[in-house]
């Protein structure tokens, strides 16, 4: 009897030790990947608690064979479009004879790439009919998300939601749903929301974005610098210092990019040069790449006030200055006709590029309005030979001079008779100028957390390809706060 009790005691002791050891492993996993989960929450709207719980459960806290050898923490299979490395192991695939066969799994270059790919899997527009409703749930309701994943058919286990909820509550993972990685001076510091209870949506997910590892926000309609300063807890003087294009008392336009941290001395992405677009200034380029204007000027041998000509290359990074300064804009070149690009940068393009966030901001922002407003079609009607005859032919303006005195006094040139026959065609061609009205009816949409191009296209009765073409997008990935032209 004594021996039996001793054996039972040893068994309980070993089980307790094993449980404590596993708990330590899970805590270590949480501490290691919580920042990535929060960053993905800010980027895609998926609660950090859900992301961490899924990672803990599906990778066995990073101890699974897939997590160790393939850095695949969510069991992502290859599929038909995967072009990267692969790993085969038995899972749940069977051949035509019902025999278990090895499944193909993706191999990632980092665990973070696995986290990003998992987010893109859930918000893939092609899967919106399954997972789209999740992004309309309360981002702080982790239970709704857990049961929503089960309802969407994400997992076959009938207890999958309960497993996630147990992990979230055991390790208090819900605390990470109310945190952000963007601090005022140090972007690696996690700051808690200042308001008790539910934090304002502007401080998590939909507020602070990143470009070149610099935090920025998009100004809302009617928002002043004081409003933005209060929203991000940064002084107005600091905002003025971080944004060289702002002056005290100025009113930011809706969607304008406002940096809440100092810009970098150089661009940290792979792109080394920027090709100047017509009307673009050095300030525009500074705002687009989050590089200090003074450093851009110095690197390209320019002084303040000098603007490069369209088509010239501006060096964005590197210790050495350019050997020859770019050609300057000619006095006849058009000045900036629009405000600097203010839409949020394009996010990672495809799963193979997700490991390199530096490329997130390589795609150039192309504002939608200029292409539609610049080409006025009213000037081309130059068929009439005599310029004097053009003014009286403008029937839209009911002036008294043009109607009565036709300037046909030119008796020297014999084409006088043709001018009498010409007035008929111009009135026919003139009614066409009303065509410039469509650009005025352009419709814009500001991307919210969890929205996809497919969902936006359905809302406005258009197509994904049409929206991508209107906004110069090269991928289906969106960023919260991005302003899209939809019609």
Account of the protein in words:
The protein has 487 residues and is mainly alpha-helical. Among the domains are: 24-179, Lysozyme (Orthogonal Bundle); 209-259, Roll (Membrane-bound Lytic Murein Transglycosylase D, Chain A); 264-330, LysM domain (Membrane-bound Lytic Murein Transglycosylase D, Chain A); 444-485, Membrane-bound Lytic Murein Transglycosylase D, Chain A (Roll), CATH 3.10.350. It is 34% helix and 8% strand. The chain has 18 helices and 9 strands. It has helices spanning 2-44, 48-59, 65-70, 111-122, 128-131, 142-151, 160-170, 225-232, 236-242, 282-289, 293-299, 369-373, 400-403, 416-421, 425-429, 437-440, 453-460, 464-471; strands at residues 86-94, 100-106, 209-211, 214-218, 257-259, 273-275, 313-315, 444-446, 483-485. Strands 3-4-5 form a 3-stranded antiparallel β-sheet. Strands 1-2 form a two-stranded antiparallel ribbon. Strands 6-7 form a two-stranded antiparallel sheet. Helix 1 crosses helix 2 and helix 2 crosses helix 7. The radius of gyration is 30 Å and the shape is elongated. The N and C termini lie far apart (83 Å). 31% of the residues are buried.
Give the gist of this structure:
The protein is built from 18 helices and nine strands. With 487 residues, it is mainly α.
Helix-strand blueprint:
Elements lengths: L1 H43 L3 H12 L5 H6 L15 E9 L5 E7 L4 H12 L5 H4 L10 H10 L8 H11 L38 E3 L2 E5 L6 H8 L3 H7 L14 E3 L13 E3 L6 H8 L3 H7 L13 E3 L53 H5 L26 H4 L12 H6 L3 H5 L7 H4 L3 E3 L6 H8 L3 H8 L11 E3 L2
Antiparallel strand pairs: 1-2, 3-4, 4-5, 6-7, 8-9
Helix pairs in contact: 1-2, 1-4, 2-7, 6-7
């Amino acid at each position: 009897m004594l021996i039996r009790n001793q054996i039972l005691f040893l068994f309980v002791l070993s089980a307790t030790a094993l449980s404590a050891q596993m708990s330590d492993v899970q805590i270590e996993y949480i501490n290691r990947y919580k920042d990535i989960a929060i960053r993905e929450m800010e980027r895609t709207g998926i609660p950090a608690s859900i992301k961490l719980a899924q990672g803990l459960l599906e990778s066995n806290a990073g101890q699974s064979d897939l997590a160790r050898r393939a850095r695949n923490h969510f069991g992502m299979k290859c599929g038909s479009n995967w072009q990267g490395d692969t790993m085969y192991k038995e899972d749940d695939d069977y051949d035509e004879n019902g025999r278990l066969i090895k499944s193909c799994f993706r191999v990632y270059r980092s665990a973070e790439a696995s986290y990003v790919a998992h987010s893109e899997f859930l918000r893939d527009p092609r899967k919106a009919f399954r997972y789209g409703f999740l992004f309309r749930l309360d981002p702080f309701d982790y239970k709704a998300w857990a049961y929503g994943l089960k309802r969407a058919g994400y997992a076959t286990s009938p207890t999958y939601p309960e497993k996630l909820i147990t992990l979230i509550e055991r390790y208090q993972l819900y605390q990470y749903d109310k945190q952000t990685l963007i601090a005022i001076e140090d972007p690696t510091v996690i700051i808690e929301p200042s308001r008790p209870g539910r934090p304002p949506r502007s401080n998590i997910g939909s507020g602070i974005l990143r470009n070149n590892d610099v935090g920025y926000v998009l100004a809302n309609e009617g928002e002043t610098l004081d409003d933005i300063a209060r929203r991000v807890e940064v002084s107005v003087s600091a905002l003025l210092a971080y944004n060289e294009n702002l002056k005290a008392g100025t009113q930011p336009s809706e969607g304008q990019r406002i940096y809440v941290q100092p810009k970098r001395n150089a661009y940290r992405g792979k792109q080394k040069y920027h090709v100047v677009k017509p009307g673009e200034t050095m300030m525009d380029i500074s705002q687009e790449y989050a590089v200090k204007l003074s450093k851009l000027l110095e690197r390209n041998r320019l002084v303040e006030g000098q603007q490069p000509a369209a088509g010239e290359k501006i060096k964005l990074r590197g210790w050495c200055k350019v050997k020859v300064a770019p050609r300057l804009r000619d006095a006849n070149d058009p000045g900036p006709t629009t405000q600097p690009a203010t839409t949020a940068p394009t996010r990672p393009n495809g799963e193979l590029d997700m490991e390199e966030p530096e490329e997130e901001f390589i795609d150039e922002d192309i504002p939608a309005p200029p292409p539609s407003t610049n080409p006025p079609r009213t000037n081309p009607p130059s068929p009439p030979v005599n310029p004097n005859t053009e003014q009286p032919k403008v029937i839209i303006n009911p002036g008294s001079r043009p109607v009565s005195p036709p300037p046909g006094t030119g008796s020297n040139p014999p084409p006088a008779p043709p001018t009498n026959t010409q007035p008929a065609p111009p009135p026919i061609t003139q009614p066409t100028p009303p065509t410039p009205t469509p650009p005025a009816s352009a419709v814009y949409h500001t991307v919210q957390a969890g929205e996809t191009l497919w969902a936006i296209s359905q809302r406005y009765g258009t197509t994904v390809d049409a929206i991508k073409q209107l906004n110069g997008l090269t991928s289906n990935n969106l960023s919260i706060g991005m302003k899209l032209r939809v019609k």
